[in-house]
Amino acid sequence: MATTNPLSSTTSSSAPSGARLLVLLAALPQEQLENVLVNLAASFAPEDLLIATSDASAKDAYPALRIIAAPATRISWTMTAADFVSAYQLAHDNGANSILMLGPEAGSLNLPALRDLANPIVTASADLVLPRYALPPHAALVNSAILYPLSRALYASRTRFPMAIDLGLSLRMAERLSAVAQRFMALNQDGAILWPVSEAAVAGFTVSEVPVGPRVLPHPAEPDLKTILPLVAGSLFADLEAKAAFWQRPRQLPPSRSFSPAVAIPATDATPDIAAMLQTFRLAYANLQEIWSLVLPPNSLLGLKRLSLTDGAAFRMPDALWARTIFDFLLAYRLRTINRGHLLGALIPLYLAWVASHINCTASGVEPEHHIEAVAAAFEIEKPYLVSRWRWPDRFNP
After folding, report:
1. Are 39 and 166 spatial neighbours (Cβ–Cβ below 8 Å)?
2. CATH number for the domain harbouring residue 125
3. Over the stretch 44-82, which tens digit does the pLDDT of each residue have?
4. Does residue 39 sit in the same domain as residue 151?
5. What is the pLDDT of residue 11?
6. Torsion-angle region of 133 (φ positive above 0: left; ψ -120 to 50: alpha; else: beta)
7. Contact of 91 with 170, CB cutoff 8 Å
8. What is the 3-state secondary structure (H, E, C) of the chain?
9. How far apart are CA 142 and CA 225, in angstroms?
10. Do 194 and 293 fall within a single domain?
11. Is position 191 within any domain?
12. Is 244 a domain residue?
């Protein structure tokens, strides 16, 4: 608990309701909480700011700021349905017209990052603001391999981290996400993952992306890939299935934006050893043929056979093969070709093969972002393949 207040107390905490910005904080260690509050106070006028936290001591410790109690958050490593419902309810009840949601480890965001995340929604120039993090080269690879390429190809969105842990929301964006979240909560799925980029695209809302520099990402309570990948991919596939009528229509990708170079958090571990990943892939190739043959067409199976015979630093998964593989798994998810749990489990060794290929590419001198952009471009190019298979799954099977 803070024993001193580093903020000026010249402004009373009893300012009238109707703050322009509600900031909903995940549970933070005291030092991080203090850092975030000091940065917020330096960025916004106190009368425009309302902060919601589950930390009961914050209101008395920081009387210069308007602080209200927030429900205990379920945020651990990503936003959940319950968090979006709480955010909208708090904004609605307190007259706020914009919301900044900050996840665990938000204390690693600097002052300009917090300001830049909030400004587009405070000024009503965007409905959804997503951060562009500067991360170590091998961090957030599920996002780089699957989430970002799918979001870019199907929703014409260049937002690099569609599953960000920090978000800026207009009131109408928060209301839409809350309505979606309430449907999950009615099914006792309070921890369901939502996909703000797709909701904004379908609603025709404005999306903005801002560079925020380095950020420490929180780790899941169960960081096992066998748990995380099926959970995230299954949620995304279900959302894409529900919005198929929207993303099948052609859309123009907006021009790329040039961001000032940011210094990423340096890698703390040595380059991952790809030998175990390749061994997992080869074992799966030998043992999962029955499942993969139900999901993947002959051309893709032939490509995987060639990969299974490739060793070490020469291992490269073609970008088009990876794009079609993800599209075929998405289609199989929709058609329930096999049990969905088994289907998503069968994707794991293929994902590890992609990771091994990505590490080899970057080790050969290719910039990580250049490779990820090439992968995303391949998803765009192969989108007609997905649309054709989605519409005529029995007739179009190359």
Report:
1. no
2. 3.90.550.10
3. 999 999 999 999 888 888 888 999 999 877 667 889 999
4. yes
5. 35
6. beta
7. no
8. CCCCCCCCCCCCCCCCCCCCEEEEECCCCHHHHHHHHHHHHHHCCHHHEEEEECCCCHHHHCCCCCEEECCCCCCCCCCCHHHHHHHHHHHHHHCCCEEEEECCCHHHCCHHHHHHHHHHHHCCCCCEEEEEEECCCCCCHHHHHHHHHHHHHHHCCCCCCCCCCCEEEEHHHHHHHHHHHHHHHHCCCCCCCCCHHHHHHHHCCCEEEEEEEECCCCCCCCCCHHHHHHHHHHHHHHHHHHCHHHHCCCCCCCCCCCCCCCCCCCCCCCCCCHHHHHHHHHHHHHHCHHHHHHHCCHHHHHHHHHHHCCCHHHCCCCHHHHHHHHHHHHHHHHHCCCCHHHHHHHHHHHHHHHHHHHHHHHHCCCCHHHHHHHHHHHHHHCHHHHHHHHHCCCCCCC
9. 10
10. no
11. yes
12. no
In this structure, which amino acid lies at residue 160? R
Those residues with Cβ within 8 angstroms of residue 46's Cβ, 6 or more apart along the chain or in another chain? 11, 15, 64, 65, 66
**Amino acid in the structure at residue 291:** I
**In this structure, what token pair is assigned to residue 8?**
């000026």
pLDDT less than 50: residues of the chain: 1-17, 262
Is 331 domain-assigned?
Answer: yes
Global pTM reads 0.91
Name the token pair of 33. 């909480």
**Contact present, 293 and 328 (Cβ < 8 Å):** no
Same-domain pairing of 185 and 314: no
User: In which residue are the tokens 């123009």 written?
Assistant: 252
CA distances from 156 to 124, 130, 148, 387 (A): 22, 15, 11, 15
> What are the pLDDT digits (tens) for 109-121?
999 999 999 999 9
CA distances from 158 to 29, 183, 233, 258 (A): 33, 28, 19, 12
Q: Which region, left, alpha or beta, applies to residue 156 given φ > 0 means left and ψ of -120 to 50 means alpha?
A: left
For residue 339, the tally of other CB atoms under 10 A from its CB is 10
321 located within any domain: yes
In the chain, the amino acid numbered 134 is A
Closest alpha carbon to 29 in 39, 37, 21, 18: 37
Domain count, the chain: 2
Name residue 133's beta-bridge partners.
213
Cα gap 129→199, rounded to integer Å: 13
